[in-house]
Amino acid sequence: MASTKRNVIYQGNSVISVETLPGYPHPVAIKKPSKRHPSRRILRSLEKEYEMTRTLDAVEGVRKALGQKLFENQPELFLEYIDGETLRDTIARQTLDLRSKLEIGVDLARILGKIHQQDVIHLDLNSKNILIGNGQQAAHIIDFGAASHIDRSGQQKVRPDQLLGTLPYIAPEQTGRINRVVDERSDLYSLGVVLYELVTGQLPFDSKDPLELIHQHIARMPVSPSEISDLPEVISAIILKLLNKNAEDRYQSAAGVQADLEQCLQRLKPEDSIDDFPLAEGDYFRRLVFPQKLYGRESERKELENAYESVCRDTSSIVFVGGYSGIGKTVLVEEIRRPVSEKSGYLIQGKFDQLVTTPYAGISQGLDLLVSQLLTQTETQLAAWRSKILEAVGPNGRVLTDVIPSLELVIGPQPAVPDLSGQEAQNRFNYVFQRFFGAIARSEHPICLFLDDLQWVDPGSLGLLKALFTSPDLAHLLVVGAYRDNEVHADHPLMMLIADLERAGANLKRMTLPKLAEADVEALISDALRRDPGEIRELSRLIYAQTDGNPFFTRQVLRSLEDQGLLAIDTAAGHWRWDMDDLRDLDVTASVVELLVGKLKELPADTQETLKVAACVGSQFDIATLTVVTAGDDDAILDHVREAVTAGLIWERDDRGFFVHDRVQEAAYTLVPIEERDRLHLTIGRHLLQRHRASDHEQDLYRIVDQLNRGLHLVEDEQERMQIARLNLQAAGAAYQASAFETGLAYAQAGIELVGETGWEQRYQLTLALNERAALLANGAGDIPAMEQHSEHVLQCGRDPLDLARIQRLQIEFLLSSKRFDEAIDVGLEALSTLGQEFLSNPDMAFATEKLSELLDRLEREPPDYFSMPRLYDQDPELLAVSEILWPVGNAAFISRPALAPLIYMRCVELSLERQLLPESIPSIIAAVGMYANALLGKIEVAHKYGETAIELASRATLHTDLYAVLQVHGLYNYFWRKPLRETLDLFDRAIQSAHDCGNNEFVSYVSLSWPKHAFYVSIELAQVEERCLRLRTFIDAIHYVTQSRWVNIYVTAVQALRGSSSAQGITWRGTPFDDERDLPDLQRVDDQLGLLFVYCAKAWVATLFGDHDGVEEYSDLSWSFLVAAPSGIEKAMLTFICGLRRARELRKNPYESEIEQDLEEHLGSLERFAGLAPMNFAHKLSLVQAEVHRARGEVLQAMQAYEQASQGARENGYLNEAGLAHALAAEFFQDLGLHQAALHNAEQ
Q1: pLDDT digits (tens, 9 = 90+) for 1081-1117
Q2: Are 100 and 107 in contact (CB under 8 A)?
Q3: Could you report the per-residue pLDDT of 593-641, keeping only the tens digit for each?
Q4: What whole-number distance in Å separates Cα of residue 1109 and Cα of residue 1100?
Q5: Are 699 and 360 in contact (CB under 8 A)?
Q6: 8 A C-beta contact, residue 1210 and residue 1218
Q7: Domain 298-512 belongs to what topology?
């Protein structure tokens, strides 16, 4: 269609040109996107403008839509051309007198009233969307791209990220910051802004800062127009009434505004004065609208606000709100939207669905809303969020984006994360979300997450909530969970979560909403009908008897009476009327569901069918899904949706529909005959599957499989059954990755049911994969019988040793976690034997030492180039299977069969070099071999070299899952023999972070012991050590590692003894974190050799610092007897030092005792060797022992020099306790010589 003339009259997000087109008698305004590739929002706005304008075709004063077409794949709207200018331009010219302004106001109110009568609200009324025609000055309202159909349900609320309209003109409820619906009165507020601008020439609120402008709309009253312009007060009063913050206090109808403006015109005097008159006498809603206020819930609202106030300060809190369906739980929680907004917080919400098992669905929905809000911010603000989140979650961002796909829009695409075992995957998942909430929930912007319908919550979400609210570091997060208490019994998983949180001391509150009192229902009805309580009391009692104080049921009954004409507006009187005799004879339903079913049945049959499908999809649905499943066209489905919107049953936003209440969905679902439901679900699943693409998110996969699984028994075609089985396997795998183990197990078991008893013969690989996955998921879910059952199926039916290996490893890891170390070893050795790897069951240490020496000699002759070797992956399935079993078996042997462990680790190194491939565990194994080189052969330099190689290997991106183990082993046993002990604290910090990243809480607990131990012996500032120890212990306690917590308490108590900050008296520890009478017997009873070594060595050192010679003797002797538990740890060096000092002191008393001399020579020889390797750690220790020996032998000058060297070396290397000890011993030495001044000088150091 060629145009003959084109004149561009507007350019912004869209371009409007005036053109003369063939077939059109008058010039046409053509509107199209300004960009070649417009956003979905722009396209949707054009679609909506055409659709809504066509709906309003009969309304005089609305610009007509003449047609639309696609031109070069761009939509073009053909609109009526109105020769005139915008109202804003008219105002700017300042040519209008008061009468003309009032006439324009009357015209606008009239047009707006007609629009509202068509069940449409504009939502973007402003002076640029109003055209004033040339000549007769007729007003036209244009631009309906933001318009919406009126939602009778009272559910149409705006989210902060979906702020509707032009900011200076929007109503408070359009900001999304308050809990109020958007309806006709929102347009009336915007009309008030337009009229304010019309009569004053300026806007009521004008700020460059969008947030400040929003705050002004919500909280600030504008200056009266009469204070700006010389206006009659009555006009100011009309405008200020329109601009009221509460919709209930505004005009309720455009007709009421029109009537009062017409009164002004009639009363306008030549001098532009108007006598006052009562306003809004003819103003009332033409339909039943319920006030947006709470009834009978003031104390509960206050309790919620207090909970939010507390999280704004410094805590986190979870509040559970119970009550019957429709009792007002959601309405109550939404009342805190305003206080959340006032504190710059974010209120986000999600709900769980009875028909949808998608893991974390409610939490994911809520966080999607947060992402949407973040995306409305500036790029600078978005970059700050991106930085905070990525810093918090480190390499594990993919864990987040798998659950919250939209988060990629903030933090970018995230790399894949390593596969972990069930418990480690769960730990990683929890840790990442703890860190994520720690990053987003801050004092400057607290988070309130509302989770609705927790009676249908999935197990994964419960686990995540438990992890969040047992985390000691979480703050500024309020979670409010609502549930139907009549559907949640004592053994419901939600009740178990609440009990667990209460036992853990979480900041938790519970409230149950009772039914409304009769007086509250009376107040609700009185406000809704705008009649005095006495006038509606009889009606209220009748309704209360029917609804039993349930507010949702009460509203539905009133709407039903309106629909039946039994409750009607009296246009003459301006209020509602009813006939009590008719109402008494009414056959009322027994339940709200029956009432809603009746209402649904009044809809056209096609609309009912669409709602049946929608109910099967879930509480929310997209229009495209309904179109696909019903094989209808978009326009027809949209018509059905709008009919339901008009009936107040659903609400629609952005091509998505939402049932206004669970009871409405339930009612629609009951319309589907029971015998047809499974078939309908199957049909939905099939249609969704046809639309599904491999790149779609897991959430779509879960939805599809959920629908298909409900109709499994109806699927007869074998090919389709196997397709569904594979889909269940996919869903089970996705759930495993998301740590949603119970949900995933159900998918895997559904797949197993589909392959049937003949699966092992006819579908071997699929059956094997399903049973493997089921066993792994059952282990993660803690369902041990199911794990054993599916494991046994694999072990019995597997055809190849490699097919059994994964399950055998699962068995070994399960036995390890159960502390059944010997069983784990036996299972592992048997599995290794079937893979061709034979071991002695219980070798002696001499044999292990001999084999180690041979390996080290071979590696010294032919040094391996680990860094040029490729990673194993699945290039060698046999080596992969062997290596994945060797590592856990070696760990079990380390505890239970010490001589077997080095043989296992050595075998892994040998196989890796033989095949020239690097297994995942090779860095840890290299570090462990290095540790044994030191412990068994005294090869400290080899140990250090192996440890450094292992760290470099593990630090590579492809092998980073092993980093924490390498850092721990190297830091504990190798590093400090060559480098500063203080630097191991950084290694342990890295190890703790790496273990968290990999979900290995057990390793976190072990490394959390290593840091306090080395910090204690390196003698950094003691208060800092104590504070860090307590923080580490808090985490260990939270994950219930009792042994490691007790170990940490040893060093907490030792530090407190040195600081004098507890009841510890030297080496007597009672009433302290580690209590001699409580804890020591426990260590002895369970033969905890490591724990006994830790406590005895710590006490020996404390005794040394306090000069408690008896204590030194007792605890050093005890320590040596347990040193075998950690033969190359720091205790070896400390005991050598402590016993060197002890023997030197004994030499003073017994100078000719040969045994003492022999021990001293041995200790000095060891210290000399240590000092030669790591002088920064050991040279001053050697000097101090030498000083004491010189003192014992009467070698005064040599002693003085050695004391000076010891104190100086200790200070220079940061060993402050040892520097103090050197000065104390020197002071004794000088005191014995009678050199009091020198003694005093040293004592003061």
Answers
A1: 999 998 888 899 999 999 999 999 999 999 999 999 9
A2: no
A3: 888 888 889 899 999 999 999 999 988 888 888 888 887 787 788 888 8
A4: 9
A5: no
A6: yes
A7: Rossmann fold (3.40.50)
Which of 152, 180, 4 is CA-nearest to residue 164?
180
Roughly how many angstroms between the first and final C-alpha of the chain, as a whole number?
Answer: 98
1203: confidence class by pLDDT, cuts 50, 70, 90: very high
Opening angle at CA 332, ends 509 and 353, nearest 5: 85
In DSSP notation, 282-303 reads T---SS----S--SS-HHHHHH
Of 519, 523, 521, 543, residue with least CA distance to 531: 523
DSSP conformation letters of 659-672: ESSHHHHHHHHHTS
Average pLDDT, the chain: 90
Per-residue pLDDT for 1152 more than 90?
A: no
DSSP line for 231-262? --HHHHHHHHHHT-SSGGGS-S-HHHHHHHHH
Cβ 944 vs Cβ 978: under 8 Å: yes
Tell me the β-bridge partners of 649.
Answer: none
- Candidates 596, 583, 576; CA nearest to 544 is 583
**Within 487-633, where are the H helices?**
493-503, 518-529, 533-547, 551-563, 580-584, 592-601, 605-617, 623-630
> Do the domains 689-799 and 85-267 match in fold?
no
Residue 1043 half-sphere exposure, CB side, CA atoms within 13 Å? 17
Predicted pLDDT at 695: 47
CATH superfamily of 689-799: Tetratricopeptide repeat domain (1.25.40.10)
CATH of domain 5-80: 3.30.200.20
Provide CB contacts within 8 A for 966, sequence distance 6+. 923, 924, 926, 927, 947, 950, 951, 953, 954
Parallel/antiparallel/unpaired status of strands 477-483 and 317-322: parallel
Residue 720 CB neighbour total at 10 angstroms:
15
Second CATH level (architecture) for the domain 1154-1243: Alpha Horseshoe (1.25)
Do 15 and 34 touch, CB atoms closer than 8 A?
yes
pLDDT at 32: 87
- Convert the pLDDT of each residue in 220-276 to its tens digit: 999 999 999 999 999 999 999 999 999 989 999 999 999 999 999 999 999 999 999
- Range 1110-1118, long-range pairs (CB < 8 A, 24+ positions): 1111/1066, 1111/1067, 1112/1138, 1112/1141, 1112/1142, 1113/1142, 1115/1067, 1116/1142, 1118/1092
Long-range contacts of 63-70 (CB under 8 A, 24+ apart): 63/29, 63/131, 63/140, 63/141, 63/142, 66/24, 66/28, 69/1
pLDDT at 4 over 90: no
Q: What are the counts of helices (DSSP H) followed by strands (DSSP E) for the chain?
A: 55, 20
pLDDT bin (cut points 50, 70, 90) of residue 696 is: low
- HSE at residue 228, side-chain half, CA atoms within 13 A, is 15
Return the domain boundaries, the chain: 5-80, 85-267, 298-512, 518-588, 689-799, 1154-1243
pLDDT of residue 160: 59
Query: Is residue 957 within 8 Å of residue 987, measured between CB atoms?
Result: no
How many Cβ atoms from other residues are within 10 Å of residue 527's Cβ? 17
pLDDT of residue 137: 64
What average pLDDT does the segment 876-891 reach? 89
The CA-CA-CA angle for residues 924, 930, 935, to 5°, reads 125
Between residues 646 and 1145, the one the model is more confident about: 1145
pTM: 0.83
Q: For a pLDDT cut of 90, what percent of the chain falls above it?
A: 61
3-state class (DSSP) for residue 865? coil
CATH number belonging to domain 85-267: 1.10.510.10
Contact 883, 936 (CB under 8 A): no
